[in-house]
TrEMBL record:
One of its GO terms (biological process) is chromosome segregation. It comes from Sciurus vulgaris (Eurasian red squirrel). This is Centromere protein N. Keywords: Centromere, Chromosome, Nucleus. The gene is CENPN. Belongs to the CENP-N/CHL4 family. GO terms for cellular component: inner kinetochore; nucleoplasm. It holds the Pfam family CENP-N.
Length: 338
């Protein structure tokens, strides 16, 4: 095992919280149970990492072994990254082929290696016939940078791929490799992005009526309002009962009675020309359209929107531009003149 692999493994293990260490190492399945039992997991983390790296050196860990450990860490901590969604499509008259995973892996790797001399590609099969892909990019003159990789989660039975990457310059090549290797005709980036990969999957797969893993202890506004109602004096008479029932009914019809997918923001870009019945004025002579950007942010945006009307902050129903996010599979919108 060379110094590059040893340093890669050392940095990856250092990122793993102590309470997850054994679980992730067992999932990695590179070090045996007997080898792990020889390690003192109660010592200082720096000493623990050094002992684990020595065991990896004894087993001659490869770069691919180190990459698999990084994939497992990323699977567990996927909410720490920002994920984009890509949708692939075939030609209208094109037949649907049976997907061969091994053929895909081989083709995908060859496409990238032909385009770039220095690139490392690693795969890890996941549940639901999905596959995790990790690509470390280099150039014709530089070795792959293992610390700025691109991650892809591909569901072969669907046209969707979820990606997280800091190196945007390689995305066209990645899109080409995914399209050709999966035998599709084209690929487009959807206007949908979030840190919560499970929520993105639920939106594009139309599975919003499920429970989502929440990495933030944020209580929705509507729940907080209900908690407050418990301590209200029973002698107080609630006014507008009919209106409150209507708001609750409209909210349930709009959002459903299940937890919402977790998104952090929705962005609306308005492009319009100035219109006025009055003649003259600086804006009336302006040829360029007016541009305005509005961004709604929240740790749990859809639950926050769902809570607005019941809390009396907004009228019901809310604007379709706010409520259509899960159905349209978008949280980036461009609004133009008709």
């Amino acid at each position: 095992m060379d110094e590059i692999v040893a340093e890669f493994i050392r940095r990856t293990i250092l990122k793993i919280p102590m309470y997850e260490m054994m679980t992730i190492l067992k999932a990695w399945n590179f070090l045996s149970e007997n080898q792990l039992q020889t390690i003192n997991f109660r010592q200082r983390k720096e000493c623990l990492v050094q002992d684990l790296v020595l065991l990896c050196e004894e087993k001659c860990a490869s770069l691919n072994d180190a990459a698999l450990l990084d994939i497992i860490y990323t699977q567990v901590h996927r909410h720490q990254k920002v994920w984009d969604v890509f949708q692939m499509s075939k030609k209208p008259d094109e037949d649907i082929d049976l997907f061969d995973m091994e053929q895909f892996k081989c083709s995908f790797k060859k496409i990238l290696q032909r385009a770039l001399k220095n690139v490392t590609v690693s795969f890890r099969d996941a549940e639901e016939n999905a596959v995790w892909i990790r690509i470390a990019w280099g150039t014709q003159c530089t070795k792959p940078n293992q610390y700025k990789p691109t991650y892809v989660l591909l569901y072969p039975q669907t046209p969707y791929a979820f990606t997280s990457s800091k190196l945007k310059s390689f995305m066209p090549l990645l899109g080409q490799a995914l399209t050709v290797a999966s035998k599709h005709h084209q690929i487009v980036k959807m206007d949908l992005r979030s840190r919560h990969l499970d929520s993105l999957k639920a939106i594009v797969f139309k599975q919003c009526n499920q429970t989502f893993e929440d990495h933030n202890s944020i209580t929705p506004l509507q729940e907080r309002c209900l908690e407050l109602d418990v301590n209200v004096d029973s002698r107080i008479i609630h006014e507008n009962t009919v209106e409150k029932e209507r708001v609750q009914r409209v909210t349930q019809e709009t959002f459903g009675d299940y937890p919402q997918p977790q998104l952090e923001f929705a962005q609306y870009k308005l492009v319009t020309k100035f219109k006025s019945d009055l003649n003259g004025g600086i804006l009336a002579e302006r040829k360029e359209p007016l541009r305005c950007l509005i961004k709604f942010s929240s740790p749990h945006l859809l639950e926050a929107l769902k809570s607005l009307a019941p809390a009396g902050i907004a009228d019901a129903p809310l604007s379709p531009l706010l409520t259509c996010i899960p159905n349209k599979g978008m949280n980036y919108f461009k609004i133009r003149d008709k």
